[in-house]
Specification:
single chain; about 900 residues; alpha/beta; Nucleotidyltransferase, domain 5; MutS, DNA mismatch repair protein, Chain A, domain 3; 5 domains; 30 strands; about 45% helix; binds adenosine-5'-diphosphate; DNA_mismatch_repair_MutS; DNA_mismatch_repair_MutS-lik_N; ATP-dependent DNA damage sensor activity; ATP binding
Length: about 900
């Protein structure tokens, strides 16, 4: 075919696929042409040459057949969809080419990265995502397949965030929902792929699911949600259509209810830095801190546990029993860990067997990993672990079937197989009679060759004879130059070298043909045998996945135990609901790098242990809403996060960083913390803050844990306090969720007097000789002051400013109410006062005894007490003092009356009055 023809064929194949890049097999190479060649040249540093023909010239880049995988992987990881066209013989000496697969992020099998690679499909009905969203998550590299229906858009986003898919298929309705798509883009790194809408149609989708998992699947797994079925069907059809041949690895459909898991919205998952820090890093996350797994499936499972904590007390009890025994039985634990060390990623190996891409070394890795199971069983049986549910985990897979597969692989494959599966040399002797015979014949032919040099020397009295083989000459007899003219007549010269000559004989050529024939037949036979073997292994994919899953579970449990034992963590007591009591709790991540000061928590339920202090006057059972105050940087956020993480860890089935913990299982954790990164995304922080608050007020229940780190800070003081106040009342009276609320509005601490179950706690600081020490201890009662000025000093704010701020603060302390400037800011301002006893605002024209109607900004009146109001606002950081006035105050303060004459003093006072705009009489 001419190059014009090849390029033409390339371009025509390209136009038939929706892939971004096409690569086409041309003999021993995969080639990229035209724009695609330039693109891969740039992306992958591939050399681009020019293919010229018929006066036209085309960019061309290529990679050898066996080297395509890393290039494919790199392109897909950069977000491209790559189509691969293979070359086939057409039976009459010619060939044709056809696209055999399209590789996308979610269908890339050749991944080396240990993380799960989910492809998610998202389907909403006509009414939109608010009425329910069907979700299917498939990891073709491991065969995991989860299906559920989320109640609304928020719930769907939470699930999508948990699974962190690499590719998303938005189904009908969802794909035209701009807001839903915007959030998808914002909350995941997944690439969005549009796939034909019909594949998500109820009938076709149902058919796809039944075809994949069996007719009775939907009934047997109780999958009733049509949206979920549509999502599942859509993803199956998509995977089938990309032609990666990976459908077989999906052996089991797992349904789940979102309510089986702890509700964790995307914001909370991010705020708690479970798998990714606010800055997008792995280091510093909860998973990073606690992960001691020795296998990648174990690491994957641990991550899954952390992002999907449970609510089922029985299951958590089982995990905790395992962790407890493993934590105390150090010797057995190490033996288990040693055994696990020999395990490969069996789920991935199963998927590769199922897709037909596994090589001999993959099957050997599967064999060796299957051998880990009995080793584990042995380590467990000989110890106290035998009485723990860990023994059940290991007993779950069909151990006999596993032994069968292992023995079959053991008997079949040679220990050191070649890389390619078409060359021969894969199998052990004794595996197949026909193969053995071929090998025998091959070996005897080779023996004949091996002895040839000696025989020729003897027969013809020659010295310096060797027999060898190379690609161009085939087998040859090489004779030293000095004796080359003495070779017998039937020697035919084929090459002259510097010091020798090469010959062949008819006999040698005949043997060569035999050997080549035998090698080819052997290669073909071994390839067939290998495919059969691989198919038999593929047929046991489900078994391999079971074993892989069991090993991963043991690994994850051992990891939890290792961390518990090494860090003095303790087993939490879980109750179906009710109080949360933590003695000497620590932050699981911060404690790793800091000398951590432990703290207690008492919330809700009946009091079984005395709380140390009752400054708030509340009995334990009455407090389930804690207002946390304390200086900036004292540890409020850390304390609240530590509580959230301890509850979460308990519901992962882990020990927790505390000396004792009693956890009433919660149905969800909701957080709202100041999120700096939102600003960067161009969304007003206050809007985001309110959206988050709104979500919490809508979604949290009596059994939820709510963490609020400042609410209302993004707006003016009055707005802020009002919102915080009202939200507190609502959470307390209506939602009744267990809540920790850190606030800098000291006014809120008086809520403890109004609302039954609200109590104050504060993070203590100690002041001595003007220095503040953060004690990091959480004590009952509100804090009495803000230490912001001290932090300013620590931050290096110049001394005059710090000193001045101290003065202003002292002045403000004398005021009992907070004030702010209302009105239009042009002078005719209104003073409004927050009345602590009524929890309402009152407007006043400076006389704090006269309460005006409670609407803000109403009424008028001259601006009086302006300096107080400005100074008051200064503490809240929203308004700064008029610079002129500040200047005058400074001058006033620095005027030393003893150093000035009375006249001079009078003049100064007059000048100040003028500058203040007053009458200078
Ligand atoms: P806040 O929310 O009050 O501004 P943070 O919770 O951000 O304060 O804590 C400020 C600093 O104090 C952080 O660096 C944190 O690591 C440290 N810290 C907080 N609590 C403790 C503690 N209990 N023990 C030791 N260090 C702590």
């Amino acid at each position: 075919m001419t190059s014009q023809g090849i390029v033409g064929e390339f371009l025509s194949l390209k136009s038939e696929t929706d892939a971004d890049i096409l690569t086409m097999q041309c003999g021993d190479f995969y080639e990229f042409f035209a724009d695609d060649a330039e693109l891969v040249g740039e992306e992958l540093d591939l050399k681009v040459s020019q293919k010229s023909s018929h006066g036209s010239s085309y960019p061309m880049a290529g990679v050898p057949l066996d080297d395509l995988t890393p290039y494919l992987k790199a392109l897909v990881e950069r977000g491209y969809r790559v189509a691969v066209a293979d070359q086939f013989e057409d039976g009459s000496g010619g060939h044709y080419r056809e696209v055999t697969r399209v590789v996308t992020p979610g269908t890339l099998l050749e991944t080396t990265d240990a993380d799960a690679r989910y492809i998610a499909s998202v389907v909403a009905g006509e009414a939109g995502p608010e009425e329910g969203v069907g979700l299917a998550f498939a990891d073709v590299t491991t065969g995991q397949f989860f299906v559920t229906e989320a109640a609304d858009a928020d719930a769907a986003h939470s699930e999508l965030y948990r699974f962190a898919p690499v590719e998303i298929l938005p189904g009908p309705t969802v794909r035209s929902d701009d807001e839903f798509l915007r959030r998808l883009r914002e909350e995941t790194d997944a690439s969005l792929s549009l796939f034909e809408a019909e594949s998500f149609a109820p009938g076709r989708a149902k058919h796809a699911v039944r075809e994949q998992f069996g007719r009775e699947t939907l009934e047997s797994v109780g999958l009733e949600s049509e949206l979920a079925v549509r999502a599942a069907g859509g993803v199956l059809r998509y995977v089938a259509e990309t032609g990666a041949g990976v459908l077989q690895s999906m052996t089991r459909l797992q349904t789940y209810e979102t309510r089986d898991h702890l509700e964790l919205d995307a914001t909370t998952q991010r705020n708690l830095e479970l798998t990714e820090t606010m800055h997008g890093e792995h280091s510093g996350t909860l998973v990073d801190a606690i992960d001691h797994t020795v296998t990648s499936p174990g690491g994957r499972l641990l991550r899954e546990w952390v992002t999907r904590p449970r609510r089922d007390r029985a299951e958590l009890g089982r995990r905790l029993d395992c962790v407890e025994t493993l934590a105390t039985e150090a010797l057995a634990r190490e033996r288990v860990r040693d055994a696990l060390d020999g395990a490969y990623d069996l789920e991935r190996l199963a998927a590769r067997a199922a897709s037909g891409s596994a090589g001999a070394s993959d099957l050997l890795a599967a064999r060796d990993t299957l051998a880990v199971l009995p080793e584990l069983a042995e380590a467990i049986e000989g110890s106290r672990l035998a009485d723990s549910p860990l023994a059940e985990v290991v007993a779950r897979p069909d151990r006999e079937a596993a032994v069968d597969v292992r023995s079959e692989l053991d008997a079949a494959l040679s220990e050191d197989p070649p890389k390619t599966v078409t060359q021969g040399g894969l199998f052990e002797r004794g595996y197949d009679d026909e193969l053995d015979e071929l090998i025998d014949r091959h070996e005897s032919a080779k023996e004949w060759i091996d002895g040839l040099a000696e025989r020729e020397k003897r027969r013809h009295g020659l010295s310096h004879v060797t027999v060898d083989r190379n690609k161009t000459d085939g087998y040859y007899i090489q004779v030293g130059k000095s004796v080359a003219d003495r070779v017998p007549e039937h020697y035919r010269e084929i090459k002259t070298l510097k010091n020798s000559k090469r010959f062949v004989t008819e006999e040698l050529e005949e043997k060569e043909r035999t050997i080549l024939r035998l090698e080819e037949t052997r290669g073909d036979l071994e390839y067939d045998l290998f495919c059969e073997l691989r198919e038999r292994v593929a047929a046991r994919a489900e078994l391999l996945q079971d074993v892989g899953r069991a090993l991963a579970e043991v690994d994850a449990l051992v990891s939890l135990a290792v961390h518990a034992a090494g860090n003095d963590w303790t087993r939490p007591t879980l109750e179906p609901s009710g109080p949360i009591r933590i003695d000497a709790g620590r932050h699981p991540v911060v404690e790793r790098t800091t000398e951590f000061v432990p703290n207690d928590l008492r919330m809700g339920g009946a009091a079984t242990a005395a709380s140390p202090e009752r400054a708030s006057g509340r009995a334990d059972e009455e407090r389930d809403f804690l207002i946390v105050t304390g200086p900036n940087m004292s540890g409020k956020s850390t304390y609240m996060r530590q509580v959230a993480l301890i509850v979460l860890l308990a519901q992962v089935g882990s020990f927790v960083p505390a000396s004792a913990a009693e956890i009433g299982i919660v149905d969800g954790i909701y957080t709202r913390v100041g999120a700096l990164d939102e600003l960067a995304q161009g969304r007003s922080t206050f809007m985001v803050e309110m959206q988050e608050l709104s979500n919490i007020l809508h979604s949290a229940t009596e059994d939820s844990l709510v963490i609020l780190d400042e609410v209302g800070r993004g707006t003016a003081t009055y707005d802020g306090i009002s919102i915080a106040w009202a939200a507190t009342e609502y959470l307390h009276n209506e939602v009744r969720a267990k809540t920790l609320f850190a606030t800098h509005y000291h006014e809120l601490t008086s809520l403890a007097d109004h609302l039954e179950r609200v109590a104050n706690v504060h993070v203590a600081a100690e002041e001595r000789d003007g220095d503040v020490t953060f004690l990091r201890t959480v004590e009952d009662g509100p804090t009495d002051r803000s230490y912001g000025i001290h932090v300013a000093e620590l931050a290096g704010v110049p001394e005059p400013v710090v000193g001045r701020a101290d003065d202003v603060l002292a002045k403000l302390r004398e005021e009992k109410a907070i004030e702010a400037k209302g009105g239009d800011g042009r002078g005719d301002a209104v003073q409004a006062v927050f009345d602590l006893s009524s929890g309402q605002f009152a407007a006043t024209n400076g006389d704090r005894e006269t309460h005006a109607p409670s609407e803000r900004g109403s009424g008028g009146g001259p601006a009086s007490g302006a300096e107080e109001s400005n100074a008051a606002a200064a503490e809240h950081g929203e308004r700064t003092m008029d610079p002129e006035m500040e200047q005058i105050l400074d001058e006033l303060e620095s005027t030393d009356v003893n150093q000035r004459s009375p006249l001079e003093l009078m003049q100064r006072v007059q000048e100040w009055q003028e500058r203040l705009g007053g009458d200078a009489r």
